[in-house]
């Protein structure tokens, strides 16, 4: 090959490299311009993290000295020449920016493992100008370092519902934790959830999100008992009621009838599930429009369970009704899991006088927004919250924490604080309106399912009231 040909190839190669680098730069600039303000700041921060890493890692003690020369140095070393200098190994990193800060995936080295990274977290936070840095394992030989510039808990977020059915009906996305990581809970095999919090702390917005997320699926049907109102046209559920197969206000007789009806449904489902679904547990096959996940929301739950004390006939009657209500809801929470019934109990406080402990304590998920007293925090989250004062909902009384909830995470020690996104009443009303045609009484769904599989149905029943 002559010199001219080599020069020609080299100039082609150079051209290709220049084109590739230009495309890469262009893509970067487009990403930068299209990103929101927070992400742009994080993109600049990510560049600084990458460029300064080798130096910073040395200063933070995250490097290791390898005295063995590299293979190349061994081959090229002269017998009588100087011994090659030891090499300083720096862990390789990959940096990704997002709205809140950077996610750094790093390799471990001998003597530089998870523990060493965790010890350096404070140092890295200062160097990267982050409020918080967490280090978690990311598979063998890898760690993930999360740095957040601003506190995700005090940064309000908004959720605009898409109106599309969720891809996974078992995933309830609650919001983000203090490291801006998504927090989801699994609804599979969960029969009860308690939600507590002082007025104005974000409970209604949380319910709006739940309804908006699940309403677009015909495999979810919702009933509500709201102790705050007397009629469906009043209060927080006035618009959402379009997507509910049953609704009642604070009338104890009506609530009693609704709970009885759902217990009946629970019994019918329990006795037919094996024949119809071919499984003992609905979650083994998942909810479907024929066998929908049936959600009962009980807002201001204490209205329906409070103890009436007095000797006159009417008080005695009401006392009997609330006691029966408690027994009925207990039945749903204790036996509804496998047949696809979920009860969400909402109350300012979840102390025993508001929600009977025999119901509250069998709800596997308990979350609370701000609370005034440690007793209320303990009632909502269990006694262990006393050992985690930093996560206590009592510290969330500042207006900056409206919309922040605390929850015990399944399979993790301690508690997680979650910034839930705000979902406006108008968006919730729009989704309820657009999806109202999907509303169906699960009792009638069961009748239809039994008919279609050639099984006899029980005597037709009156539809649930609204
Ligand atoms: N997740 C959130 N992020 C930011 N702001 C929120 C959030 N949730 C609620 N807010 C603000 O707080 C106000 C009250 O919220 P919401 O009605 O959800 O409280 P609540 O706990 O249901 O109160 P109540 O018990 O009186 O019904 C809302 O109008 C909104 O301005």
Automatic annotation (TrEMBL):
UniProt binding sites for ATP: 197-204
Q: Which PROSITE patterns match?
A: FTSK (PS50901)
Q: Which organism is it from?
A: Streptomyces graminofaciens
Instruction: Please name the InterPro entries in this protein's record.
Output: FtsK_dom, P-loop_NTPase
Q: Where are the transmembrane segments?
A: 12-33
Q: Which SUPFAM superfamilies match?
A: P-loop containing nucleoside triphosphate hydrolases
Q: Where is this region: Disordered?
A: 147-168
The protein, known as: DNA segregation ATPase FtsK/SpoIIIE, S-DNA-T family
Does this entry carry the keyword Membrane?
Answer: yes
Which UniProt key words apply to this protein? ATP-binding, Membrane, Nucleotide-binding, Transmembrane, Transmembrane helix
- Judging by the UniProt lineage, the source's domain of life is Bacteria
Q: Which residues form the FtsK domain?
A: 180-378
Record keyword Transmembrane present:
yes
């Amino acid at each position: 090959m002559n010199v001219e040909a080599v020069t020609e190839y080299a100039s082609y190669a150079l051209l290709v490299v220049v084109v590739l680098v230009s495309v890469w730069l262009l893509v970067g600039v487009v990403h930068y311009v299209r990103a929101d303000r927070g992400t742009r700041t994080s993109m600049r921060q990510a560049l600084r993290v990458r460029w300064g890493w080798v130096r910073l890692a040395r200063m933070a003690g995250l490097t290791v000295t390898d005295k063995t020369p590299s293979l190349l140095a061994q081959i090229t070393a002269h017998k009588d020449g100087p011994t090659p200098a030891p090499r300083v190994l720096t862990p390789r990193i990959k940096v990704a920016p997002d709205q809140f800060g950077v996610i750094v995936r790093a390799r471990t080295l001998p003597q530089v493992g998870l523990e060493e990274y965790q010890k350096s977290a404070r140092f890295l936070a200062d160097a990267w100008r982050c409020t918080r840095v967490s280090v978690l394992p990311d598979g063998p030989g890898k760690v993930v370092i999360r740095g957040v510039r601003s506190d995700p808990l005090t940064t309000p977020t908004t959720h605009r519902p898409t109106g599309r059915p969720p891809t996974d009906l078992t995933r309830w996305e609650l919001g983000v934790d203090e490291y801006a990581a998504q927090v989801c809970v699994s609804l599979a095999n969960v029969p009860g959830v308690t939600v507590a919090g002082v007025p104005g702390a974000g409970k209604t917005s949380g319910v709006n999100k739940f309804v908006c997320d699940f309403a677009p699926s015909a495999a979810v049907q919702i009933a509500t008992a709201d102790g705050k109102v007397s009629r469906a046209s009043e209060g927080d559920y006035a618009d959402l009621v379009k997507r509910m197969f049953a609704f009642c206000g604070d009338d104890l007789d009506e609530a009693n009838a609704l709970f009885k009806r759902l217990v009946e449904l629970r019994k019918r489902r329990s006795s037919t599930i094996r024949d119809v679904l071919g499984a003992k547990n609905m979650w083994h096959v998942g909810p479907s429009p024929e066998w929908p996940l049936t959600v009962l929301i009980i807002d201001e739950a204490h209205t329906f369970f409070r103890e009436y004390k007095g000797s006159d006939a009417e008080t005695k009657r009401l006392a009997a009704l609330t006691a029966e209500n408690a027994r009925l809801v207990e039945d749903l929470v204790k036996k509804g899991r496998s047949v696809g019934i979920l009860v969400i109990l909402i109350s300012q406080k979840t102390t025993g006088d508001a929600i009977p402990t025999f119901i509250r304590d069998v709800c596997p998920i308990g979350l609370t927004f701000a609370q005034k007293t440690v007793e209320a925090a303990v009632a909502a989250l269990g006694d262990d919250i006393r050992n985690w004062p930093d996560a206590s909902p009592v510290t969330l009384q500042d207006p900056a924490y409206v919309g922040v909830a605390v929850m015990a995470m399944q399979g993790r020690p301690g508690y997680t604080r979650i910034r839930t996104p705000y979902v406006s009443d108008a968006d919730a009303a729009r989704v309820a309106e657009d999806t109202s045609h999907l509303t169906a009484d699960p009792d009638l769904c069961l009748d239809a399912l039994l008919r279609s599989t050639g099984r006899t149905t029980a005597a037709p029943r009156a539809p649930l009231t609204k």
